[in-house]
Amino acid sequence: MVHLSIKKTIAIIGAGPCGLSQLLAFKQAEQDQLVELVCFERQAEWGGLWQYTALTGTDSCGEPIHSSMYRQLWSNGPKEVLEYVDYTFEQHFGVSIPSYPPRAVLYDYITGRAKAGDIRKFIQFRTAVRSVDFDDNTKKFHVTIEDLTNQLTKYLTFDHVIVASGHYTIPNMPDFEGISKFPGRLLHSHDYRGADEFVNKNLLIIGSSYSAEDIAMQCYKFGARSITISYRSCPMSFRWPDRIKEVPLLQKIEGRTAYFKDGTNVDNLDCIIVCTGYRHNHSYMAENLRFRTVGNLYVPPSLYKGIFWYAEPQLAYLGMQNQLYTLNMFDIQAALVRDVFLGYVTLPDDKSQKQRQKNISEWQAREQTLSLDDHEAFSDLQTDYIRDIVSCCDQNTVPKFDLERSNAGMYRFFQDKRDNILTYRDQPFHSIFFPDKEAPISETPWIKNTDDSIEGFLQSIKTV
Amino acid sequence: MVHLSIKKTIAIIGAGPCGLSQLLAFKQAEQDQLVELVCFERQAEWGGLWQYTALTGTDSCGEPIHSSMYRQLWSNGPKEVLEYVDYTFEQHFGVSIPSYPPRAVLYDYITGRAKAGDIRKFIQFRTAVRSVDFDDNTKKFHVTIEDLTNQLTKYLTFDHVIVASGHYTIPNMPDFEGISKFPGRLLHSHDYRGADEFVNKNLLIIGSSYSAEDIAMQCYKFGARSITISYRSCPMSFRWPDRIKEVPLLQKIEGRTAYFKDGTNVDNLDCIIVCTGYRHNHSYMAENLRFRTVGNLYVPPSLYKGIFWYAEPQLAYLGMQNQLYTLNMFDIQAALVRDVFLGYVTLPDDKSQKQRQKNISEWQAREQTLSLDDHEAFSDLQTDYIRDIVSCCDQNTVPKFDLERSNAGMYRFFQDKRDNILTYRDQPFHSIFFPDKEAPISETPWIKNTDDSIEGFLQSIKTV
């Protein structure tokens, strides 16, 4: 390990899961007086999108509401494939818990590790980053922040900037003929907060990815009258229960009637929920530093190793991938960022950026060959990606886990969903770290469970 | 009249009612080759907040939805006190119409005059202004715009900038204990689109101004089960019908129960509609040019004659007032802006800005003496304000109307509302221009009228 003689100043933007992983990764270096860390968080609390608020639109500081979280959201993948290597669910809750926990459990777990790690002191809450620019002469970043509580603007300078502000906030909102005149309720999944208001209603859901699937299932669970899901390219094709059907792309809306590409239509719609995903929006980054992408890709363009800004590797972006892996992948990304920024490992010298571009292109080429509905292939891709960044890290400190076992867990999860979309969340998984250990199951199957509190969840665990 | 020898370049931001008034005011000057006009409009159509869209949140270009308009909105003041001097409702529709028209009628009227005036050619639609800065040396404005359709950024220079981008878009969202955990539907009036979804629901409405009153009445009309209106300082105190009551300020929300300052509470709430107004947000303006205000005032600070930026009168803001008068006031503001920018009249020479500041302070002092519930006094204030700006204009071209008669119309409108909040919209007013002419009435009283189309409205006119 090469230790540095002067402190590096490091700004992290966002105290969601990625920002928290990054703070923890740097913590030892901070104790060793190697870095001066600050994390700017626009919200009043940490946890990023895992924080629920009933609010939509604008908050009391006039800032856009960040979270797209809704009541009664349960994990849509087994907890075993996202568990932190250094902080297990069992360690946090004191008991082994079922594989698919509700939101509050995940929030408590993520922020529980952050509390245990004593990193709250680095975070400036209610602080929005307004601009980030890079000075090529001094090789420093100029960062403008706004203290929202006191309405003060401050101008700061850093050696490194790490963008961890997420990409599930700004709705991607396609246009459909007549939709702006729809006389019922129309919302994007970003503003969906719970199924209660859709009981006994006829819903149209537009989209064919995780939001569409999960919101459809939640509205089904709580008693929507009918749910029509419209897909653009590729249906999800689960064995949908009665009251749910999938149809091709919406062509137009006239009154309360929707017309689809196959010539069919649905009448008497009460509500349209547009689940067409989110846009990357890093508009506070100077144009020459701004990560842009159309859609949500497993291999983000312009980011070397999926992390470092191709033209200026003093700048990193965390978690910009479409994600199958989440918390554990963020930890590994954060480890590599730390190792590179502190000089523990070095990226190839590449002033012409050619090697970096070539590496990005190779990964992009692989993604482009994959069929959209081949979930296993995307899991292989992201598993290999993680293996690659693990191999770049300082091997003494990188958090490692058995990637083959994780990938096998992903495969089983996909199969469980294909087998039965109503029951996949009731399945217990084996721990990645302790393969003999299987999660307990809940007394109440997910489809009947309307208690998403931590207490309710823990009490529901079936004792053997 | 002093005519100028070179063309002035003028940018108008926004093609809502104010921007359209301004384009029409400049039109003659454009024909005379005195000005080069361009109006930037972020939306795909003109008419500003009068354009209805079912969308909330973000549009298909990723821009925030501008309008706070809802279905079944009817004018909440008599059309006679807003009518254009040079283009009457009767002229537009070919018949005399009742005093309180629905949205579509007003939209058709406003945009009808714009069409007749052939000003569409000046407007660049789907174009967002990203920054406005002023160069003290060249005395020119640098304006950055984004062509949203083609995703192109352009850098332009102008002699004058006129901000007409409105101030009913960014919600003012106060915080209340527990509100972010409310398990029902929570929305700001900006996102309210119609009463249908609130039929048979128990509503809490927070606010005591026009939005609160109108949304409460609309939800009442369409069949909300109960409506509780919570005020901060001053109740509206109309003779509310059954199912509507007013209570003091909300203290906290626990579950579906709201607790108020007088110790009372309301249970089983399905929905909270926050009607606490809007914030001025002109964040694309450089800080030294940016109009800011806390709240919505009849006398906007920093604007000389309620229009010209105190420190740099080459910059104008239109319609930044809290408004009793609207369309006709915008026309007069636009006339003064034209007269000043083209040198037809001159503002007092005031390099130290002292005279301008003094004038603003005098008007502010008058506003500050007024009691919030003294509507007549605010009408007097705005009437006097309009009289003042009329007196500043070129008297040969300023659109004039009888201000005493208009003010008397305001008084009667306030009294009608106090007499009966359910029937005030059924009252016919006399024309300001032709005082012997009284508006017809509708066959269907407003409280029973659920047809807000132009056709329905015109057909409903009672023939004598």
From TrEMBL, chains A, B:
Cofactor(s) for this UniProt protein: FAD
Q: Which residues form a coiled coil?
A: none
Keyword annotations of the record: FAD, Flavoprotein, Monooxygenase, NADP, Oxidoreductase
Which is one GO molecular function term here? N,N-dimethylaniline monooxygenase activity
Q: What class of enzyme is it?
A: oxidoreductase
EC number annotated for this UniProt entry: 1.-.-.-
Q: Which Gene3D superfamilies match?
A: FAD/NAD(P)-binding domain
Oxidoreductase listed as a keyword:
yes
Pfam name, any one: FMO-like
Family, according to the entry, reads as follows: Belongs to the FMO family.
Q: What is this protein called?
A: Flavin-containing monooxygenase
Question: Which organism does this sequence originate in?
Answer: Adineta steineri
